[in-house]
Every structure is written in structure tokens, then in C-alpha cells.
Amino acid sequence: MSKLSLTDNLREVYTKRYPEDELGPDINPALTIGALKSAVESGRHVYRVLQVWDSLVREHCFVIVSEAAGEPYDKIYEAWLGSNVD
To answer: How far apart are CA 33 and CA 59, in angstroms?
Structure first.
């Protein structure tokens, strides 16, 4: 698999990585990985940004963001929870 970039389209990456997930095609088609990262960091409603209301999809997307950003998954997850993480 090639290295992920924050400018990559999240839905395209997601559907390639999780082709069996029926909700993948429902992810916001205009959303980049970096845009989701910014949304998490700014406290925006992640499910509205994704346009999918499913915790497993959110978790998989956070893994993708973590890999593209080169940051631990916990940092992304804790930011979503509203915690300050160094």
C-alpha cells in the first residue's frame, strides 16, 4: 500500500481498504483525510462531517487519519473526545 497523504480523498482510501463495508460509499465524497483531521481537532461533529453515523466507520477513518498524519491513533481519538493530548 502506498503512503497516505492528508490530501487523499478519505472515501476512496476507505473503500479500497474496507471493500466489504457497505457504508464506505456513503462517506462524504468531498472529504479529504486532512479535512477530517481538522474537523476532529476543531471539535466539529465528526459524524456530520463523515455523513455516516457509524462508530466502526469512524474508528476506521481515525486509523486512516492517524497513518496519514504520522500520529498515534490515541491522539486522534483523544482529540475527538475533547481531551488535551501532547
So the answer is: 13
